[in-house]
Design goal:
heterodimer; A: mainly alpha; 2 domains; flat; B: 2 domains; four-stranded antiparallel sheet; globular
């Protein structure tokens, strides 16, 4: 079939749209790069100006060197492992209990009405103040950090699971029933996939809060983990090393968020 | 149609009351009719005549009712494998592509992937969506999504196809064309079908018999045989006979529909006074 005039028009419109999107993406990229260059430039000139004590604002070169030094040191990897283990275990525990609690809150109106306010109003409180209690219960090792991390992940995951449960399109449930799906099939083939976005969103938020809590707890009382490492570098007053480690920790947190976001989209 | 054939679906004195002892609404009042094998029956009535209640009872989603809906010797009080439902609302699974949506009932039964996809392809062809197997519902138009739902119900090969205003959200032209598709499929599969609708032309275009319901409490006002030739296409809407049937049924419906309208206006007035 020969292309009609309308088809050509449509195609060129699509091309134009694609062209515009491409140009806009390039502008966005340019703005980002410009911002980073500006930031680095300001940092470096501040560092060299001598206005501020050199160690407080170390030069980029020193920070870069310290990052490399950290990345090849066994100590960094050992601590990273500890923190990663704590955070992921905390997240897994928080997700398990959070999803279960969220389903309960979302499925039963009375349970939801009775308990959701607690979860809702407790959710933005700082969990770190419970750290002393966690130490009493679980000791100063990894367990207390995991418990605290799980506790902080729990809330956002439970709340978004409950919300997701209520948002399910009722007709999909009727479809499942009309095809005589078993309760297990209803759960795995309708409820869970229908709720996947809010649940993953909760897990992504939960990851952030549990990482924050774990790192914070490590800076308080601990002898391993990245939080502990930050404090011990700080105590040595190795500022370049401190900035280097902070850059790495931010990069890891960002990467983790991105990874979970990607997983959710799939 | 031979009268001796045993009915595929029997609705017998079905009544349903909603609410409690103090305040209740009789949605259906002793509704009785039959659908014979291969027959296309439409139930038509104004809003509030208990059509959807009837749909839910026959589909087994509303177990608590008086009277009996029977398939063979079984009284329906839960979803029955012989009855396949198509809902009024958009009901495709947004996280499944077309082929996985259509294959869903077979997946529930544990049919292996290759086999169920082959069968799904067949029914996707049947509703005219070949080439869209890998698309997701968000990439389809409203009419296409409803066809996915219909294919998904047909794949379970129900003895009785039960549809609740499946084209309610579509425009008139799409509706006529989809009506053609339905007629075609129904004749190809000799599919026994019960269509719940409030659309006059749709009912006359598709059905062999039309059950006309009254406004609340919904009971049967009349059953009209539609003796329009088969195979039928949407061209039939231009014929004199078609016009006759529409006029005749509208004659019955007008009174009921205006009662419904007066009721809802009275409710609106009462609401305004309260404010």
């Amino acid at each position: 079939m020969a292309p009609t005039g309308e088809m050509i028009l449509k195609a060129s419109a699509a091309d134009m749209r694609r062209g515009r999107a491409f140009r806009e993406a390039r502008i966005v990229l340019a703005i980002r790069l410009a911002f980073i260059c500006l930031f680095f430039g300001l940092w470096e000139s501040l560092s060299r100006s001598g206005l501020i004590f050199q160690d407080v604002v170390p030069s980029l070169l020193n920070i870069g060197q310290s990052i490399i030094k950290l990345l090849v040191s066994a100590e960094f990897w050992k601590n990273l492992q500890v923190t990663a283990f704590e955070t992921l275990t905390a997240l897994a525990l928080g997700a398990l209990t959070g999803v279960a609690a969220g389903i309960l809150l979302g499925a039963n109106r009375f349970i939801g009405d009775a308990f959701e306010p607690y979860v809702y109003y407790l959710s933005p409180t700082p969990r770190i103040i419970l750290f002393p209690i966690m130490i009493m219960w679980f000791g100063i090792g990894l367990a207390s950090k995991i418990a605290l991390g799980a506790l902080s992940a729990f809330f956002s995951i439970a709340l978004s699971t409950a919300a997701g449960m209520r948002q399910i399109d009722k007709v999909l449930i009727r479809v499942g029933k009309s095809f005589r799906a078993t309760p297990w099939q209803m759960a795995t083939k309708i409820y869970l996939p229908a709720m996947r976005l809010p649940v993953f969103n909760g897990i992504r938020l939960g990851f952030g809060t549990s990482l924050i809590t774990v790192l914070l707890a490590e800076t308080k009382l601990s002898n391993q983990g990245l939080g502990y490492m930050v404090m011990s570098i700080y105590n040595r007053f190795d500022m370049a090393g401190l900035y280097g480690l902070l850059v790495i920790v931010f990069a890891i947190a960002g990467l983790g968020n991105m990874l979970i976001g990607k997983l959710a989209r799939e | 149609m031979s009268g001796e054939k045993q009915a595929a679906l029997v609705v017998e004195n079905v009544s349903k009351r909603f609410g409690d002892a103090e305040e209740s609404v009789l949605a259906c009042d002793r509704v009785s009719f039959e659908v014979k094998p291969g027959e296309f029956v439409a139930v038509i009535g104004p809003s509030g005549c208990g059509k959807s209640t009837l749909f839910n009872i026959i589909g087994g989603l509303l177990g608590d009712y008086e009277g009996a809906v029977r398939v063979g010797d079984v009284r329906i009080d839960g979803p029955h494998p012989s009855i396949g439902m198509v809902f009024q609302e958009e009901s495709t699974f947004p996280w499944r592509n077309v082929i996985d949506n259509v294959a869903f009932p077979l997946e529930l039964r544990g049919v292996d992937k290759l086999q169920r996809e082959e069968k799904a392809r067949h029914f996707i062809d049947l509703v005219g969506l070949d080439g869209f197997e890998k698309r997701y519902p968000s990439q389809l138009s409203g009419g296409m999504k409803q066809r996915v739902s219909i294919a998904r119900t047909l794949i379970s090969q129900p003895e009785i196809l039960l549809m609740d205003e499946p084209f309610a959200s579509l425009d008139e032209q799409t509706r006529l064309l989809l009506g053609d598709k339905i007629t075609q499929i129904q004749q190809q599969l000799k599919q026994t079908t019960l269509l719940i609708t409030h659309n006059l032309t749709e009912a006359v275009q598709l059905a062999d018999r039309i059950v006309v319901m009254t406004y609340r409490p919904g009971c049967i006002k009349r059953i009209v045989n539609i003796d329009l030739p088969r195979p039928r296409t949407s061209d039939v809407v231009g014929s004199d006979a078609f016009g006759h049937y529409v006029a005749e049924i509208w004659n019955d419906l007008r009174e009921e529909a205006s009662r419904g309208m007066q009721d809802s206006e009275a409710i609106a007035r009462a609401d305004r006074r309260r404010v």
